[in-house]
Specification:
alpha/beta; 230 residues; globular; single chain; 11 helices; Uracil-DNA Glycosylase, subunit E
């Protein structure tokens, strides 16, 4: 019988967007672009998800370049993968503020093993996007930043939420990272498709680290209270 680890790894291996994106927007698929991401994420999931324990989904926006865009693990940058999860990463040791916050929260929750026994973090859109900035460098892009992009990826989003639910995750509650556009879109999507009985939205880690860093302990406490009430 397959475990969560088996199903998650298979999901990652088969992630592929076959639609057409608006001009200037590039899809970011670490599992197709980097053998390191598939290798490190598979090691991670076999370490923490090699079981059938009941878990709740937490969905962010879409992967970013310096976190899951490299490791293949949501909100886990290479630094946290090595230091907190004790998993080697043979690539650049990038830092993502969102990942820093998440692992501070996980420590307060009770540790990596305890947290991942109860939760699985991914994204509403499981693949990321980039555009070329004015400085000629690639920058992260969100699925909702462009109406044409959202239209293009809408079926892909629906299909992959359904696929992840079918892995066996709980559907009474789903947690959403992002209390603005991400929450608004997700609630409308859930009203239409009835994926989950309840959605609980929490401020996005990137917002907290960028605008509320001095108060982040208050947000960690808010996260823990929400998770305890599931």
């Amino acid at each position: 019988m397959s475990t969560f680890a088996d199903r998650i790894i298979s999901f990652n291996q088969n992630l592929e967007f076959k639609g057409t994106l608006p001009a200037g927007i590039r899809i970011m698929n670490p599992f197709k672009e980097s053998p390191v991401a598939l290798q490190s994420s598979s090691t991670f999931y076999r370490k923490y998800y090699n079981d059938e324990l009941p878990r709740h989904l937490i969905l962010g926006i879409n992967p970013g370049r310096f976190g899951s865009g490299l490791t293949g693990i949501s909100f886990t940058d290479p630094k946290r993968l090595v230091a907190n999860c004790d998993i080697d990463f043979p690539g650049p040791m990038t830092h993502e503020p969102s990942s820093e916050y998440i692992y501070e929260m996980i420590k307060a929750f009770g540790g990596v093993a305890q947290f991942y026994q109860q939760f699985y973090i991914h994204s509403i859109c499981p693949l990321g996007f980039t555009i070329m900035g004015e400085n000629g460098k690639e920058t992260n892009y969100n699925y909702y930043d462009n109406k044409a992009l959202l239209t293009a990826v809408y079926p892909f989003i629906v299909k992959n939420i359904q696929t992840q639910i079918a892995m066996g995750f709980e559907t009474d509650v789903c947690f959403c990272f992002g209390t603005g556009k991400n929450e608004s879109f997700f609630r409308k999507l859930n009203e239409e498709h009835r994926f989950f009985k309840q959605i609980i939205a929490l401020e996005h880690p990137r917002y907290i680290m960028q605008y509320k860093s001095r108060s982040r302990q208050e947000y960690i406490d808010k996260y823990l209270k929400a998770f305890a009430g599931k």
